[in-house]
Amino acid sequence: MAIQVKDRLFTIEMANTMYQMQVDSYGVLCHLWYGAKTGCSMEYLMDYPDVGFSGNIYDAGNVRNYSLDNRPLEYSTIGNGDYRIPALSVIHANGTKALDLRFEAYEILPGKYQIPGLPAAYGDETEAETLRITLKDKFSDIKVILNYGVFEKLDVITRSTVIINGEKDAVTIDRAHSLCLDISRGEWEWIHFHGRHNMERIVERNEIFHGIQESSSRRGSSSQQQNPTVLLCEKGATEERGLCYGAALLYSGGFQTQVEKEQMRQVRLLMGMNPELFSWQLNPGEAFYTPEVILSCSLEGFGTLSHQFHTILREHVCRGVHKLAERPVLINNWEATYFDFDGEKILKIARQAAELGVDMMVLDDGWFGKRNDDCSGLGDWFVNENKLKCSLHKLAEDINGLGMKFGLWFEPEMVSEDSDLYRNHPDWAIQIPGRDPIRSRFQLVLDMSRADVREYLYESIRNILNSANIEYVKWDMNRSVCDWFSAMLPAGRQGELPHRYVLGLYELLERLTTEFPQVLFEGCSGGGGRFDAGMLYYCPQSWCSDDTDAYQRTQIQYGTSFFYPVSAVGSHVSAVPNHQTGRRTSLEARGVTAMAGSFGYELDLSKLSREEKEAVGEQIRRFKQYGPLIHNGAYYRLSNPLKDNLAAWSFVEKDQSRVLAQGLTFRVEPNMRRYVLKLRGLEPAAQYQLVKGTELEAGQIYTGAALMAGGILLPGADGDDKAFEFYFERV
Ligand code: DGJ
């Protein structure tokens, strides 16, 4: 049993870490500890000086050092003398905002709790336990249930909150974060992942200064600009050293991560839905469920933390027959043709790809409605047989005849004004009456909160999926949302739309993925604009970025790897000069970079030279050989491509019996010495034989200690973006 309760002290002991909280003498649930296992109560470390201008709860009388303003709390609220950022804010029927939460009850349940309508990590009673703590407002019948899902072996705790209105009148929730983590000691830094279209999840590490720092999205989706993941680490922590915490939100809408360093140098971390896009009327007797946060702690730096997140996301968030299965090597026609294709052109690409060993042909945007550019057709999910010059059924059949699977692109949540759908149902698009709608990529967004919209999408997609042998769906979403208005909601409840949109999206995804369990769903949003743990619950992989330039991709994939498993990262080899950056990189550089993901191609292979085609065939054979190691092994970041002159990573078999290291060198200088690459995660005393390696003699034997402490010599300088790959087996 990972969860132990003694005299109102709650201790969660996992494989290597411990989380502890305590109900104090006033019934307030305080956070005591998150870190190494200590085997005792950590209450002795708490000291509470009398801090002027910090309010004292009434029942503390003249005890001036008792203030919620400087206690580490499990869940913070507003209007009770805690002036730090609140996790929860509720407007009562009389218009006031105040909550004073006190402990009421707890229960421990076998297995991991689930959340109605929202994605959540899952685990049975052999894998997880649930701790449910109920708090109640001292002055009203508002209750708050804090759920803790504990995956003992994985050093993972999930957090989510339920707010219950036991009052006679409705209340409004205007802020309901999923996670509140108070850290009372230490000097901390935080790492978040920012970016833009074509450049997602770039790592930024900052000192935590006094005041509030934030990473968030107001875009209606998790966004390219910030990612709903965050890392807090001790100053100076590295890949292999230092205490660090990671948090990932299972939510695909707007989010907010806030970090506050307060007057006593304590740090508070909040994470949840973005309150700027949220309010919710909670009627008497109703419950509101926040999304879930996955929390994990490592005592040994970022590498271990990433392994913990990779395991929980791959094995306990991703679902369905594909989650652990080898993924097909696919070819996508987008960068090969854009909108300019017919069935024959697609077949030509497929024929060449089949010859080289590609498993699946994916037909991207432009096969439906009137869609020859991005200004029309979205919403009209009817096959454009005039354009294809054949039926979808026939095209899929011909592709299957080549020994390949067939996959198809959709962008269900969108509508073009120039479409039959919009002409028939203009009110289905999100726009504010009396104002011009905001266009983005010349398209509008459908109101996913509406059951009739979802029903239309369900029927349309279902019909298409039943009309041909379609084994993969790319679910795209190519704009951010604003001008929020739904004809279905009364004026006072319009603030619910952003969250209702996400709930509607999840409902539709749940319905379709349940009805078509064999279909592999890949998420996408103008590349990696909705690459989040919530989407992984429905789609076990996601297109990582529209930027397919190998050099830039190493930086994008570096950031992505802190939380997301390699199998979730859609990554393709594309043509040169690269369509996004104009850069030319070698085919091998593009190959090794794309292999660090769910691998595929995005170009017309028939345009390659004979040598290049042979190289592609060889890459596919290599990916099929190494694929299980790449997706199931432990992933190590061996360099920081944002700072170092190389990008390097490796995959180590769980039993340490083999390792594949890959990467690129760049920013070459004259008269350079060769770089040395130090491996990680090997058995120091074991002997490893080089089976294959760039410019190194195969057969050579090294100890694990030598490979980790000394390293291997990388190829000499010979232009930028030179790829390398080394494969060792233990002898
Ligand atoms: C954006 C995606 O990221 C691309 O891969 C492609 O599918 C286009 N949309 C199609 O419009």
Radius of gyration: 27 Å
Task: Classify the helix fraction into a percent range.
Answer: 10-25%
What global shape is seen? Answer: globular
Give the termini distance in whole angstroms: 39 Å
- Full CATH superfamily name of the largest domain: alpha-galactosidase from lactobacil brevis
Profile the largest sheet.
10 strands, antiparallel
- How many helices? The count is 13
Can you walk through the features of this model?
With 731 residues, this protein is α+β, with helices and mostly antiparallel strands. The protein has three domains: 3-316, Beta-galactosidase, Chain A, domain 5 (Distorted Sandwich); 330-467 and 481-517 and 531-605, Aldolase class I (TIM Barrel); 646-730, Golgi alpha-mannosidase II (Immunoglobulin-like, Sandwich). The protein is 20% helix and 31% strand. The protein has 13 helices and 38 strands. The strands form seven sheets. Strands 6, 7, 8, 9, 11, 12, 14, 15, 19 and 20 form a ten-stranded antiparallel β-sheet that branches. The protein has an eight-stranded parallel beta barrel with strand order 21-22-23-26-27-28-29-30, surrounded by four helices. Strands 5, 10, 13, 16, 17 and 18 form a six-stranded antiparallel β-sheet that branches. The mean pLDDT is 97. The structure holds (2R,3S,4R,5S)-2-(hydroxymethyl)piperidine-3,4,5-triol. (2R,3S,4R,5S)-2-(hydroxymethyl)piperidine-3,4,5-triol (DGJ) is lined by residues 334, 364-365, 409, 476, 478, 524, 526-527, 543, 546.
